Amino acid sequence: MRLVGDNVKVDIYPLQEALRIARDQGLDLVEISPNADPPVCKVIDYSKFKYEQKKKQKEIKAKAVKVVVKEIRFGPNTEEHDFNFKLKHAMNFLQEGAKVKATVFFPGRTIIYKERGEILLLKFAQALEEYGKVEQMPKLEGKRMSIIIQSKGKVAKEKTKAE
Q1: Quick one: 44 exposed, middle or buried, by C-beta within 10 A (0-12, 13-18, 19+)?
Q2: How would you class 81 by CB atoms within 10 Å of its CB: exposed for 0-12, middle for 13-18, buried for 19 or more?
Q3: Contact 50, 14 (CB under 8 A)
Q4: Which residues, including other chains, have CB under 8 Å from residue 8's CB and lie 6 or more apart?
Q5: CATH topology for 69-162?
Q6: Parallel, antiparallel, or unpaired for β 99-105 and 132-141?
Q7: Which residues contact 79 (CB under 8 A, 6 or more apart)?
Q8: How many angstroms from the chain centroid is the CA of residue 116?
Q9: CB of 69 closer than 8 Å to CB of 99
Q10: Of 136, 141, 62, whose CA–CA distance to 99 is shortest?
Q11: Which in 70, 99, 100, 121 has the greatest CB count within 10 A?
Q12: Cβ neighbours of residue 9 under 8 Å, at least 6 residues apart?
């Protein structure tokens, strides 16, 4: 097997010799590439290696952007005042960087007004045009019709601060 690592002469060694070298240094012999010809092993402290890997994974996870989805619900007969009230909330959510999922719920037999629901959602998306862009057009799923609007991010925040 090919042996690599710190304080080790990179060369091909028999298994017993490689184990002896690792033991002499007080470290572990870890197989890195078993499919290579000859297989590659590294002399390292295995527990320290695992700790470093965990630390890197945590760092990657911390840097990942967490997407928050806020949901706003309407009925098919939502009046203008309620619409404007919910629109202001949606603007705030988009300025914070969250996605907004607007849903029109059709209880009972109100499913016959699905055109009203679609018009309401399109009007909602148009009103939020400068704060976010439509990620998913209105889609009917059972008794719910929903649209997803993605935040434009800091651009929308800076515009409102300038005004």
Answers
A1: buried
A2: exposed
A3: no
A4: 21, 25, 43
A5: Translation Initiation Factor IF3 (3.30.110)
A6: unpaired
A7: none
A8: 33
A9: yes
A10: 136
A11: 100
A12: 3
Query: What kind of fold does domain 2-47 have according to CATH?
Result: Ubiquitin-like (UB roll) (3.10.20)
Structure tokens at 44: 């390292």
Beta strands in the chain (DSSP E): 2-5, 11-12, 28-33, 40-44, 69-74, 99-105, 132-141, 144-151
Averaged pLDDT of the chain: 86
Q: Are 148 and 99 in contact (CB under 8 A)?
A: yes
DSSP calls for 98-126: -EEEEEEE--TTGGGGHHHHHHHHHHHHH
In the chain, what are the domain boundaries?
Answer: 2-47, 69-162
For the stretch 97-116, pLDDT in tens is 889 999 999 998 888 888 88
Q: Look at the chain and count its residues.
A: 163
Q: Which amino acid is at 49?
A: F
Distance CA 111, CA 145 (A): 10
